[in-house]
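B., you asked whether I could sanity-check this one before it goes into the benchmark set. Here's the sequence:
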Amino acid sequence: MTEELEFTRDDEASRYEARLAGRRIGLATFYQRGDVVVLPHTETEPAYGGRGYAGRLVRYALDDIRAQGKQVDPACPFVAHFIDRNPEYADLLA
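And here's what the prediction gave me:
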């Protein structure tokens, strides 16, 4: 049985989270600067690395930022690289 990866935005903790079977396995921190959401850090638990989970989490975060009508500052190198590889998100760059 394949477990479903779940994504959430935790405004109190200022982070997006990826959870597998209820356990947080990844996160992307954020803070807001006006209408720009800064994403300074992304991490995945080492045991879950290399499975594409971080990329799926970043995609969730960027889709959420777009839905809010905001732009993004990809301060995290992983996020910046993700946007470079996925030009459909280039319009979000502040």
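One thing to flag: Helices lie at 53-67, 77-85. Otherwise nothing jumped out at me.
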